[in-house]
Structure formats: structure tokens, C-alpha cells
Amino acid sequence: MMKNIKRTSILSILGLVLLFFNACDDTSEMYNISTPTAPVLSELTTTNLELDAVNTNNPAITLNWKSATYGQQAAVNYAIQFSSDEGFTSPVTSATITGQNALTLSVSEVNAAAGVAGLNPFEWSTLHARVVSSLGTQGSEPANSNTITLSVYPYYNYTFNDYYLVGNAVSSNWNNNDNNPGLFRDASDSNKFYYTGYFGAGEFKVLEVKGLWQPQWGTNDTSTIEVNPGGGSDPGSFPNNNLPMQTAGYYEFSIDFASKTFTFEPYTEAGSAVFTGMSIQGSATEGLTAVNQLGFDQHIWYLNGVHLVPGNVEFVTNTSAIWGSDTSFSGTATENGGSIPVIVEDDYDVWFNDLTGRYILIPLNL
Questions:
Q1: What is the pairing mode between strands 140-144 and 192-199?
Q2: CA 316 to CA 295: how far, in whole Å?
Q3: Which strands make up the sheet holding 249-256, listed edge to edge?
Q4: Which residues of 278-290 are buried (b: 16+ CB within 10 A; e: fewer)?
Q5: Mean pLDDT across the stretch 276-294?
Q6: What is the DSSP letter of 37?
């Protein structure tokens, strides 16, 4: 009995000793900061920026500022922000840096910020810039600098990827540059693509660039996608890991490049309207322009290299039905659904699916 009491006493003492040493080892400090003095952004010697779409990695501007002060020796974070309005209603953070008071932004960085801020390409617009200081990883105690104003002429920053079909189950066969059908991008999720149409008995893959075999997308099972970005081994083919599809017919293929998944399901085409002609019209094109029907699939229509200017287009069937939508570059058109906006001048490959109303306008030079 006495031995048990003694053991308990010794353990209690050891616990108190450890607690004491832990308290002594606590070296955390509490910092008291004063009301911050905001950084002061220097005016630029040149305030007109005509951004060059060719030399995008060249420096565009160098921003310098007087450091913010917080009353303590601390590493201060700085965020470079742009806005289309002086009140910075929706600021765009282009870059961040810690402990320094100068930063050079490239042409592409300024152009991207201008685009996100809402400036139209190929016209002079006002862009406001400021520096916001803060402390710590949570951006505590932010302080805004003064604002400087730039006049910027952005080029268009086309941020989308485009994809094409290749294989003996589709119209181009195993030719990587033979009017390969384009996949139709989801207007609200740029990682999702669809193709609903006729597939022959066989197999197919997905390419990112016409004329190149890589990057090449395929599958090694029945639901997930794999890619050979170049220099590696090519994945198996759709729809099922190099097992050719035995039954030709209409199918719906969907692919999600974010989740790395795909589906391939039969589609009921029977009873769908069959059009004998298709055209585009609108302020973005000259008059009524005939659209080609894909011989392999009577529901797929295309134009190669058609020149479009800022404006709008609509699809017009041989029955005089007008199909459109309100999303640029890609979307789903419906009858009397409005006009498709064309926001930048370029030569385009245009694809339209009259089964689903899906369309995609692929710029060739952006």
C-alpha cells in the first residue's frame, strides 16, 4: 500500500516539473503594431501601354513604392491590384511579393489583369493600379496605397483549350489534320466537353492540337482518361481501352478534363429533324454564309477559317428557323435563343450540332 502511494507522489512531482519547464520553454511573443502607414506608389514615366501580343514575356511596367510601416520589424506583404474603376469595386490581384518595394510585370501579366478587370481588347481603356500591404499569411491589417492611372491597349487573351477527335470511328480516321471534328465546350465549365453524333465501328482518341499527335488523350479502362503530353506512352483508345466498338450508331461522348473522367452512351437519333442546309448570319459576318454539312454525319455542320469581326452570329436552317444563344465561343443554341456574341476579330473554325444545339467557334490566331 505504501509503495503505491509513493509511486503516485513521484509521478505528480514529475508532472509539475515538466509543466514548469514547458512554461519556461514558451518563447512565443506578442507583437503590438501601430496603425499602418500605407505604401506610396510612385508615378510611372510612361502611362500609355500598347500591349504586344507577340512578345508577351517582355516587361511591360515596373512598379515602385515606398514601404508601408507597421511599427515593428516584420516582413510586409504587397499585392499589386488593378481595376477598371478608381473605387476598385472588383480589384484584380496580378501579383504578390514580400519584403520588397518594386516589381516588374510582363506584357502577358498586365494583359491578363486588364482582361479580368473587364477591359475590351484592341481598344484604349483606363486601368487603375495600386499596392495593398498586409502582414502574415492571413493578409492582416491591409493598407491601400494611392492609385495611379494607366491607358492600356490590350490584346485578346484566349484562355480556352480546344480538342479534336481522331480515329477510325470518326470522320477524320487516323489522320491528325483532316478537318477533325471539334469537341463542344460547356459554356459554364471550360473543363467539360461533349460530342453527340454518329460513330462508326472502331475507336477514337482526343487531340489538343490538329496536326500533332501529342498531347493525346485516351483511356486505359472504362471511365477515366489518360494523357500522353509528349515523349511518353500513348493511352488506349475510347470508348473502352483499345477494344473497338462493334456497333456503329449515334452516341453521346462526354469528357471532363478536371475530374479525368469520361462517359460514352448510346443516343437516340431517330425522329430528330434532318436539315438539308445551314447558314450563319449576323453583324459579325458578311451577309448569309453557307455552312458545310459533315458527310460522315448529317447532323454536324462546320466552317473552316471563316473571318468574323466583333458583332454577333446566328445559325439559320433551310426551314428558316434561327438558332442562337448569348455565350461567346461556345454554348447551346436554341430556336429564337438570341444572337451569339463574337467579341474579337479573327479567322474561326465553326462547328454546330443540330441534334443538341451545341456550337463552338474556335479562333485560329489568338
A1: unpaired
A2: 19
A3: 184-185, 192-199, 249-256, 261-266
A4: bbbbbebbeeebe
A5: 96
A6: B
Select 278-363's CATH number: 3.30.160.70, 3.40.1410.10, 2.10.70.10, 2.60.40.3620.
2.60.40.3620
* Residue 180 DSSP one-character state: P
Return the DSSP state at 66. E
Coil, helix or strand at residue 185? strand
- Give yes or no for a contact between 143 and 132, defined as CB atoms under 8 angstroms apart: yes
Distance CA 100, CA 76 (A): 8
Give pTM, 2 decimals.
0.70
pLDDT in tens, 35-85: 889 999 999 998 999 998 888 899 999 999 999 999 877 889 999 999 999
Helix (H, G, I), strand (E, B) or coil at 41: strand
Q: For residue 319, what are the contacts with CB-CB under 8 A and spacing of at least 6?
A: 275
| Beta-strand runs (E) in 212-338 | 216-219, 225-228, 249-256, 261-266, 278-281, 289-293, 300-308, 311-317, 322-324, 330-332, 334-335
Residue whose entry in the numeric block shows the C-alpha cell 503594431: 33
